[in-house]
Amino acid sequence: MEAMATLFFHLVFLLLQSQKLLSLSCDFNSTRGHHHHKQLGPIGQRVIVVDANGSGDFLSVQDAVDSIPENNTRRFILQINSGYYIEKVVVPATKPYITFQGSGKEDTVIEWHDRASDRGPNGQQLRTYHTASVTVFANYFIARNISFKNSAPAPLPGMEGWQAAAFRISGDKAYFFGCGFYGAQDTLCDDAGRHYFKECYIEGSIDFIFGNGRSMYKNCWLHSIANRFGSIAAQDRHSPCEPTGFAFVGCRVTGTGKLYVGRAMGKYSRIVFAYTYFEDVVAEGGWDDWDHNEAKKKTVFFGVYRCWGPGAEYVQSASWARELDYKAARPFLAKSFVNGRHWLGPWDA
Fold it and tell me: Which residues are catalytic?
């Protein structure tokens, strides 16, 4: 019996140590994602005017981006005047501190039409992440009062290769205010990094916000154009140590079709809706495990806090979606979710 007791206590000790190591590992990984080095910020700024009618410095947005020196330390504000800019735009990682300033999301639009099944210059299919009309790899990107659109038509249920992103954000510390994102399947690729979307309009049909970003959507309008069924958010968190996730705060959900509000793209997918209004467009069950993997229901974090409207009942009814109290919801309600106190302006949030 004494040997059995000794073995039992050894097993308990090992279990506690492994849990402690996992906690330390998660803390280490979370800290690594925060980039706590001192950031001085841009020094000065310069305005570049883009005008489709020829009244500015450049006719195209990409030409304006190309004119900016690599590793710039100034804030470059691209004043993009009213008009439709039919082009594909890429902001490389070597060009931080760029602002796209439009004349209003109804007036300034950057649009392209690539789909995942389309062929690129190398003859290979583009695949989803390379379809975006605008792709930003750089840090400290800002967009205000401008729209991004992928004009590829919405796919019918079961059609493959029709993913068509309007915007992909892969840089860290990006801020969007008063922007529009228009597409169908996979409209907004919230790929990686910390992002803050405020008072934006996001339209699509299937997984029209997706990726593994760490992002807050504050007072945004999420509008479905799904014909029969669709889904809003697909979040791709793969580890309990990752600080990523989507927090929707004070939003409204409208449109057509029956929607899943969130899908478990990753095993540890994390999505929270708080203070959000839902029209009667939510599918029974509210949430989806992505690939019929019942085990995900034990590892995802799907949360709801003080949501309302005729569709809110289904959002709250799933047994594996948590009805949060204030203590559990609080980390997802403020800009601190994206470490915003370190990089957002006092009026930005």
Answer: 207
